[in-house]
Amino acid sequence: MIKLRSLIHSSLITLTLFSASVCAVEKEYMLKAGFLYNFARFGHWDYHLESLNEFIICSPDKYFIDAANNALKSRTIKNLPLYNKLITLDKVTTSACNMLFITSDTFIEWQNITPLELKNVMLIGETDTFIENGGHIRFFLSSGKIRFEIAPKQLKDAGITMSSKVLRLARVVDR
C-alpha cells in the first residue's frame, strides 16, 4: 500500500511538472505570436498586401499554431483576415505564407531546405544561428524576457522593410 501511494505521489508530481512546462511553452508561444502580429502590423512588403485575400502566418510547429490561434483570434493585418497555418517545409508551401515562424523544434527541418530564396516572406526563428541561416528576425531571452534581433538587410533582400519604431526596440544585426 505504501509503495502504491509513493508511486501515485511521484506520478502526480511528474504530471504537475509536465503540465507546468506545457503551460510555460504555450504562454511563451502566445507572447511570440503577439510579437509576430506586431511585426506584421509594422512591416512593409514590396507588393501591396491589399491585393491579397488574407494574411497568413505559417509554422511547421503544431504547438505554436495552436497557441497563435488562441492569441490572435479574429485579428486582422492591414484590413486582411489573419490566419495561422500549420505547414510542411517545402518551397511551394512556404512561398504561400506572409510570415514563417521556425521554432527550435523545427529548426533542423528548416536547415535541410535552406538556402531557400523566399520573396515577400518574413522569416522569424528562435535558435542561436537562425539569422546566420537566412532568417530575418530571431527571438532570444535576456534577463528572463523575450527580446528580438533583426537583420534589416536580409529583410530588404526578401522585399520587406521594418518600421523604425520596431527597429528601435530590436538588436539590429548586420549579416
From TrEMBL:
Source superkingdom: Bacteria
What the entry lists under InterPro entries is as follows: YfiR/HmsC-like
- The answer on whether this UniProt entry bears the keyword Signal reads yes
According to the record, the signal peptide region is 1-24
Which keywords annotate this record?
Signal
Family matches, as Pfam families: DUF4154 (PF13689)
Protein name as it appears in the record: YfiR family protein
